[in-house]
Design a protein that fits this description.
By secondary structure, the chain is mainly α. It contains 2 helices and no strands.
Length: 76
């Protein structure tokens, strides 16, 4: 059986959360669903997908990652 990392579970739980419409307050259910899916895949011998970078690291509406507003030019 393959070791399942916390990062693998986190990524899968996020995907499960998105697939279910991003409801609030269901994080434990999504975590457990993700863990169960990964365990079943590991038992069946399905290889885990590996990614170099996570798209999850960018938070929507994060002011740090938001582009700076364009300055208005004054026309006379």
């Amino acid at each position: 059986m393959t070791d399942i990392s916390e990062d693998d579970i986190r990524k899968r739980a996020y995907a499960v959360w998105e697939a279910s419409g991003c409801p609030e307050g269901s994080h434990e259910e999504h975590w457990l669903t993700a863990l169960q899916q990964l365990k079943e895949e590991a038992a069946a011998g399905i290889p885990q997908k590996t990614t170099r970078g996570s798209k999850l690291s960018v938070v929507k509406n994060d002011p740090v990652n938001a582009p700076a507003p364009k300055k208005r030019t004054r026309t006379v």
